[in-house]
Amino acid sequence: MRPSEHVLDLFAVPGDLAPVPGGQGRSVRAGDLVLSPDRDPATLDRLNPALARLAADLDTRPGRDRRDLRIAMPVPARDGSWVVEGWGATRYEPGTQQLRDLTATRAVGAILHAELARAVSSWPPADRLPTDPTVADRWSVAERTAFEQLPLPSGTLDAAGERLLRRLSWARDTTDLGPDQLVHGDLAGNILLDPDGAPVVIDVSPYWRPALWAEAIAVLDSVLRLAADPDTMTSWTRGARRQAMLRAAIFRLLSDRPADGAAYEEVLAPLLVPLPR
After folding, report:
1. pTM of the complete model
2. Are 140 and 206 contacting, i.e. CB atoms less than 8 angstroms apart?
3. Terminus of the chain with fewer CB atoms < 10 Å: N or C?
4. Of 18, 50, 44, the residue nearest 32 (C-alpha)
5. Which of 85, 88, 84, 99 is closest to 33 using CA atoms?
6. Which 8-state DSSP code applies to residue 196?
């Protein structure tokens, strides 16, 4: 995919584009911006003003250390819109590298979610069930299914995935995971380290869920995709952590394309118990 001339014009960037590594491989650098496709205007109209205020506050906060948390600044188009033909923009961060260490990722996530909880008091899209085809992306459906707001689908996974989905779903209970708040549901792999060593959070995937669930997703993704120690999962086998991880796994199984059921089963083995006969 390539942004049209109209997109480039409204974001006031040149047409000399370069691919940006990571993610789904479809974002491009254009001048001093990163342009990313398939952005939902309704979501970014709500999210980006809050993120921009928080990003500016973090960058200018009195007494900040040069290695403190940062957020990649979202940038509107010249007409004030946050999305043009499905493309959204953030400020390009030169000289960065991806953070892959799980311990550091979890620490950044804890600070980020504390800041988001203070900055954003409500999230109206959380009240919209994804039944409208215009908003029913697979991530929204997977999130609501993980929290039992939608029924389990059938026939969307391979045989191993279907079996695993039933085991995960059966093991859910009503343990309290903590208060709902705005969280980043795709944190692992979306933290950069700038030249000063400050973590820069990019590509915020917004959900109104407990921070523990977002942390569980980051742990699961890190083990599956970023070579984190699989033994990490043994600390997610009881209580609220287990329930958060069960929901994280259901979310990922249903949103991945394709989902490798066998790989998930191996990683999640410490949490699994046999289904009742």
Report:
1. 0.94
2. no
3. C
4. 18
5. 88
6. T
Confidence (pLDDT) at 158 = 86
| Residue 178, C-beta contacts closer than 8 angstroms, at least 6 positions apart | 210, 211, 212, 240
* ∠ Cα 42 149 158 (to 5°): 95
Q: Is the dihedral of CA 201, 59, 80, 209 positive or negative?
A: positive
Residue 220 has pLDDT above 80, yes or no: yes
Beta strands in the chain (DSSP E): 17-19, 28-30, 33-36, 70-71, 88-91, 97-98, 180-184, 191-193, 199-201, 206-210
Cα–Cα distance for residue pair 238/119, rounded to 1 Å = 31
Q: How much is the average pLDDT of 226-245?
A: 96
How many of the other CB atoms lie within 10 Å of CB of 233? 18
131-145, 198-212, 224-238: lowest mean pLDDT where? Answer: 131-145
